[in-house]
């Protein structure tokens, strides 16, 4: 096993050893939440429970009738079957057989309806859970995703939700019908012969006591299996992406990756074997106890029947009822195991739902007014949130162990961008430029100070209207594994083909799209790897143009591009910035010479501000950065953004 697996085991044992009292309290709380979650399905649940009771009654009736048939047979052909109807023994046997057949048909029909209801309720619940988890995770701040393993989240959305669903689609139906069946069976057996029934129940503790321990063991194994499956899912998600696969190949790590995956898969395999053996021991013990009890009924009941103390039919009824008693008993004992596993799944789902988003709309949040927008930073301070502020303390397996953060990275930053004007941010890597872009789009909230759009604090503006009015283009140029059209329509799902064509033309992409095999319906591949960096970036610009934001923020949108691609992207950006308020973050100083104001950041502070010529004349930090870039004397061509 790898060192990571050993560390994981150690962490798991240390973080999952609550007291029994606390564990019981947590489970009661989980059960209450499950009931609230299932409330929308209460009508179908009531019908389902009612039909389950009917099915249980039908299950008990058949052994009683079978005993009566045996009594009729042993009574002889000439004995009257009943005084009420005056039927002959033969006719009475036929009637009994017909009734048994009808009950069997009714039992099968009710069973199908019960199964349909349980499946319907279970699938409805899984739909509700998946949608709740997906919607809730989307509300989490960016800090959550920077510390979260994607595969672990996907595992919770799939495996754990399905595990929770089984509690309703399978376990619930079994618990209700089997509990009623068990109660009715015991009642009827006690009425027929309480002595034999008590003797048969003597062996019950031999089964029940181990079943309780096995239930706890199965729940523990289920949780461990879920953890390791999440780890495997994370590794596959990361390594099966184009960047991940490339990284593994470039550093010659396939064998090491295979070993790590095999270690985790081997752990899952071992857990699976343990679970199978626990279940096998459980069922074997149950069948053995059931067989011994049946032998007891036949032995004692047979002796009593021969001595005329009990009818032969009663012995048969007791034997059939006993087999039908241990079947629901088996199911109920197994249901305890399934319920424990389902509770684990529900707990893991609720852990995600309990994460509180750091950023949410205020109750009185308003809409960002349309039209030209001014941007103002007022004495802004900010430090990236630590893990506990992102509410990840209870999700080590989801968030990883990264608790870094909390260090202040923006210090007392103030500046204004008037409508239609452009401010550029420059500085060394890590100076805080991208952080300012993320604050302006409210991917994070400031710690102190304020960011205002047209004089309104962005925390008083709804997130939907904010992101509709403020557009961000990053250097990543991220695209989903979908068609060009689908990636563009993220900005405006109602955009017409004419709108798309206009955006592509302004982004200088018309010829590129026409050259693709399926045009707009060409799948770009994961993260757009089918396209060049410049083409991906221009698609993000076309997407921005479709969104029609009033404020445009460019976060090093031309970084990592060759000169030809940069020129094409700069041309497209000129279209995107036309008439809009702009904040441009640039590493290449030649691209922001025409900015109305340039802010120079160092260690999260504005150390200089002014236009290009003023800052050069000042011979300060900006001039130093400029000389460093063009120290070889080969100045880059004038491809800068126009104001």
UniProtKB/TrEMBL annotation:
It is a multi-pass membrane protein. Pfam families: ABC_membrane, ABC_tran. Keywords: ATP-binding, Cell membrane, Membrane, Nucleotide-binding, Transmembrane, Transmembrane helix, Transport. The keyword Cell membrane applies. One of its GO terms (cellular component) is plasma membrane. The keyword Transport applies. Residues 375-628 form the ABC transporter domain. It is found in: Cell membrane. PROSITE patterns: ABC_TM1F, ABC_TRANSPORTER_1, ABC_TRANSPORTER_2. The chain crosses the membrane at residues 90-114, 192-211, 280-306, 312-333. SUPFAM superfamilies: ABC transporter transmembrane region (SSF90123), P-loop containing nucleoside triphosphate hydrolases (SSF52540). Gene3D superfamilies: ABC transporter type 1, transmembrane domain (1.20.1560.10), P-loop containing nucleotide triphosphate hydrolases (3.40.50.300). Residues 46-341 form the ABC transmembrane type-1 domain. It comes from the Bacteria. GO terms for molecular function: ABC-type oligopeptide transporter activity; ATP binding; ATP hydrolysis activity. Belongs to the ABC transporter superfamily. Lipid exporter (TC 3.A.1.106) family. PANTHER family: ATP-BINDING CASSETTE SUB-FAMILY B MEMBER 10, MITOCHONDRIAL, ATP-DEPENDENT PERMEASE MDL1, MITOCHONDRIAL. This is Putative ABC transporter permease/ATP-binding protein. It comes from Gordonia soli NBRC 108243.
